[in-house]
Write a structure and sequence with these properties.
- This protein is mostly helical and 126 residues long.
- It has a domain of 85 residues.
- The radius of gyration is 24 Å and the shape is elongated.
């Protein structure tokens, strides 16, 4: 295994383990938006490493006689490496949407309760 492959495999493994631990945590204690942003940044870095590896493989394919076969293999491997990363990304996006929706509902509840108190004080003032 090449050094770059070891680095990529190690990085993806760490991201997967970290993400799995975060997702396996108690669902009643959802992740914060900051934590989700950090996880997303790590996944984006992993995706960039996969794309860099793919570009390197494509460049090396052009040195071979069977270029199309090599390109197809490189593309297939790229999608296989991206699949778990994209699954984690979808899960993070779902959690982000749920947090934002809960925050939106909370703000709406706060707005609907605040004007009632303010309107009573305005009525009592005159």
């Amino acid at each position: 295994m090449k050094p770059f492959q070891k680095t990529l495999a190690t990085f993806i493994g760490l991201v997967t383990i970290t993400s799995f631990q975060a997702f396996a945590a108690d669902q009643s204690n959802p992740m914060s938006l900051k934590r989700i942003a950090e996880e997303t940044a790590a996944l984006n870095e992993a995706k960039n490493l996969v794309f860099q590896r793919y570009q390197n493989e494509v460049k090396s394919c052009w040195q071979l006689f069977a270029v199309n076969d090599c390109l197809a293999k490189a593309k297939r491997e790229k999608y296989q490496r991206l699949a778990p990363i994209e699954q984690l990304e979808l899960t993070l996006n779902t959690q982000r949407r749920a947090l934002k929706e809960a925050d939106r509902i909370q703000r709406l509840n706060d707005k609907s309760s605040a004007p009632e108190g303010a309107s009573q004080s305005v009525k009592a003032a005159p």
